[in-house]
Amino acid sequence: MKLQEITESRHNFEECMKCTVCTAYCPVLQVNPLYPGPKQAGPDGERLRLKDPFFFNYALKYCMNCKRCEVACPSDVKVADLIQSARIRYDKSKPKLRDRILASTDFMGSLARPFAPIVNGITGLGITKAALDATLKIDRHRTFPKYSGRSFEAWLRRRSREQAAFPEQVAYFHGCYVNYNNPALGKDLVKVLNALDTGVQLLEKEKCCGIALITNGMSDDARKHATHNVSVIRKAAVDKKLKVVATSSSCVLTLREEYPNLLGVDNSDIRDSIVMASRYIFERLEKGATLKFREDYHKRIAYHTPCHMEKLGWGVFSEKLLRMIPGIEFTLLDSACCGIAGTYGFKKENYESSQAVGEALFSQIRSVNPDIVACDCETCKWQIEMSTGYQVLNPISILAEALAD
Amino acid sequence: MKFNSVIIGGGLAGLVAGISLQKEGLSTAIISTGQNALHFFSGSFESLREPAPRIAELFSEAGIGIHYSEGVRLMPLGTFREAALSLDDVSIFPTSHFARKALIVGVTGYQDFFGSFLAEGLEKKGIQCRLRNFSLPELDTFRQSAGEMRSVQIAPILDRVWESAVREIRVLLKDEDAVILPQIFGFQDISVPGKIRREIPAKVVFAGTMPPSVPGIRTQRLLKRRYETLGGTYLAGDEALSAHVHKGTVHSIVTKNLDSHYLEADNFILASGGFFSKGMKSNPFQILEPVFGLDVEFASDRNDWYDPDFMKDQPYMGYGVRTDSSLRAIAGGEMMENLFAVGSILGGTRPELGSGAGLAIRSALAAVDEILKTGKR
């Protein structure tokens, strides 16, 4: 046993016994023949790359990092980590301007926010989309998320005293999306947690979790974000002994798993404190706290488990929470990738693959025909809304909507 | 989180148990550490014949077609084996002389189907064989990296362009009365194999390929969907690490993803598989069951675990956990009150004879009956 621990290979790649099960669950492989697939890109390729970096294959950029290969692997090989690590280690090409723009979610957000109505107007125009398509290769079918005029941080900061009065406290890693695009989700979380007699605090000053920086070849920047975030989360989680909740499954996966596994940033003392809000709320309810729901709330909800929620293994918490709401008719959608994978689907060269990957999910949603699709990921939300026309809400927002006043 | 039953293992045994319990109105969760032996499934549930009504019902409600009749079925190397309960993909014939002449059609570049082996075996039976391949423009792109032209890459495409495939096969067909194709049809669309049978004017036989098994993956997906439709909680990619046990009764399970959040239940089913699935582990000194530390039967001298002749029966393949006649597991010589072992983790089984699928179903149903008998709801 000891010997095995000492000799454990990077990302466990030597445990691969070439069963090829991962290839059956790779969404990209089935639609994009340019991608060599998780087995070849991951453990097979790693053996070659270790001999000579010459064997690094630039087609690895087609990996969406959805981690479905890891969920499927019977031998605990970190297939997607192998692929992303190889990109970090061997891909020396400079990220394009477009990729820099797409990856810099918090920088772009802070630039756009003060001019939100103008920016929203411009990015929504057909001519802007055509121009972005032609110049930057951002696919014209995509709609940029709208920017909000006032940041969530500013909103919550003004309520810090009232929040501090609650007997229980949590810290909230809101992420770029809630801060710049959808403060309503953050407010919904505050509403639900307040109903549980729990106040919500900001971290000292969070930065973007960095997931888009990692996948766009800007890992040095991502590492800076990670080091910073770990230190501010440490102040909340270790010094103040608070749970740090989040409403985005990709933020949570990045903070808990990608920091140590891909960026080499140690988070061992805070990892267990970082949880999805749905898990935190479920556990509070299980321990005896109660939420009072409206009696007139009747909705047909179809829940989509985002890939990173699947990897966390926590979709069950969102599912069970939604099922607790009386008057909800619940459908669990088949576990399948929506195809957007963060910034991946925004790139012109990926648009077709992205839509082909999502088709199984879209057609199931159409046949279930729910009132609302629930899902814990903002980019899945954009993709599903664009591709199906159905409204997508975070489970926390549905919970907030169903609460009795 | 609390359930009536927590099942460790999301393969055939775990899913059959989970579906059956959910149907009885009992809440369950399945902990699945990666995918399972269904991905290597031949399409036949060895050791099962005419299905008991509850087995027939279970599969039909999941949308999986199964059948049985007396006779034989074609094996991937051109030999025949006695018929067993099979997916509709698998043909069963009254005798091995199912055709005079057979056209064996592979896919150009697809290397996991051994047409020449099939031909060699069939010709010994007096069936004349002709080998051909077909290709389609839609499949050409994959040959850029021929090493990765695997069943799961081409099967989804064949779902879409099966009509073009049929056209190509019909052109190849001369006076043969049987066409043998690799079992790579119907990945998502279960109706495709049936349509191909109707459109080709000869007996169409789908023969097994190297893994991954297309009918097996489809079966896994349909059983999981059925389980989730019944309200079951399928924890994919999680791993049972340890258990809280008190005086022979299991109280809860600790998992890798849920860490401090334990899974509590009245009953537990261990369907975690054999060595490949890590249901059992070995080190130089012993063979162990890692979650509960159950008693495992194995030879004390390690040299007796295996036979140096690779082709002989390997004793370690039959090693597994001990249970009593009700499938209750045994630890330290003591029976575990509410822990049932099912599927290939059971000792004394012979996976090399392919009895895994039949054993998985039968033991899972036996454990379900025990749970229903105790009436803990």
Structure description:
- The complex is a heterodimer of chains A (405) and B (377).
- Chain A is an alpha/beta fold.
- Chain A has helices spanning 2-6, 21-24, 38-51, 68-72, 79-90, 97-103, 105-112, 116-124, 126-136, 152-157, 160-164, 175-181, 183-195, 211-215, 219-239, 249-262, 277-286, 307-312, 315-324, 351-368, 378-388, 395-402, and strands spanning 168-173, 198-202, 243-246, 274-276, 299-303, 328-332, 372-374, 392-393.
- Among the domains of chain A are: 2-90, Fumarate Reductase Iron-sulfur Protein, Chain B, domain 2; 299-402, Rossmann fold, CATH 3.40.50.
- Chain A is built from 22 helices and eight strands.
- In chain A, the strands form two sheets. Chain A has a four-stranded parallel β-sheet with strand order 2-1-3-4, sandwiched between helices. In chain A, strands 6-5-7-8 form a four-stranded parallel β-sheet.
- In chain A, strand 7 (372-374), helix 21 and strand 8 form a beta-alpha-beta unit.
- The longest helix of chain A has 21 residues, at 219-239.
- The model of chain A has no long low-confidence stretch (mean pLDDT 91).
- Chain B is an alpha/beta fold and 377 residues long.
- Chain B folds into two domains: 2-41 and 217-374, FAD/NAD(P)-binding domain; 59-211, no CATH class.
- Helix content of chain B is 27%, strand content 25%.
- Chain B has eight helices and 21 strands.
- Chain B has helices at 12-23, 53-61, 115-124, 137-140, 151-172, 192-199, 214-229, 356-374; strands at residues 2-8, 28-32, 44-45, 66-67, 72-74, 80-82, 85-87, 101-107, 128-134, 178-182, 203-207, 233-236, 240-246, 249-255, 263-270, 281-282, 287-288, 296-297, 320-321, 328-331, 334-341.
- In chain B, strands 1, 2, 12, 13, 14, 15, 20 and 21 form an eight-stranded mixed β-sheet that branches. Chain B has a four-stranded parallel β-sheet with strand order 9-8-10-11, sandwiched between helices. Chain B has a three-stranded antiparallel β-sheet with strand order 3-7-4.
- The model of chain B has no long low-confidence stretch (mean pLDDT 93).
- At the A-B interface, helix 2, helix 4, helix 17, helix 18 and helix 19 of A face helix 5, helix 7 and strand 12 of B.
